[in-house]
Specification:
With about 110 residues, the protein is mainly beta. It is about 0% helix and about 55% strand. It is built from no helices and eight strands. A hairpin with a 3-residue loop joins strand 1 (about 30-35) and strand 2 (about 40-45).
Length: about 110
């Protein structure tokens, strides 16, 4: 087994404030990938007000955990507001999008089909 970390771009073996690991940038979507392989991806995002991640599908279930602010998710045509401390799952192969009517940060975990 390798000594290489499977989770990257963050300190290991210490308590972390995930929200502090990604910063808002005016007019931008900022991301920080923590893990990505054939089965899983974990990414932190900060979306400034008015920004969006347009409609798309993924080959796995995507768990959105909002760290700060309020995200407006659209999943298969249904709007799902999700606030700080809440999580929503966007099912695999269902079209979805994310909108920042106000700025928000999220942890996105995608569990992919094998």
């Amino acid at each position: 087994m390798s000594d290489a970390a499977l989770i990257k771009n963050i300190p290991l073996s210490e308590a972390l404030d995930l929200s502090a690991l990604v910063t808002y940038q005016p007019g931008q979507v900022v991301s920080r990938t923590l893990a990505q392989n054939d089965a899983l991806s974990i990414t932190l995002f900060a979306l400034d007000s008015g920004e969006a991640i347009g409609t798309h599908t993924t080959p796995g279930d995507a768990l959105v955990y909002v760290l700060d602010g309020v995200a407006l998710l659209e999943i298969g045509g249904t709007r799902v507001p999700t606030a700080a401390g809440q999580a929503t799952v966007m099912p695999a192969h269902v079209p979805h999008a994310l909108y920042a009517e106000e700025r928000f940060k999220m942890l996105l975990v995608v569990v992919k089909e094998r």
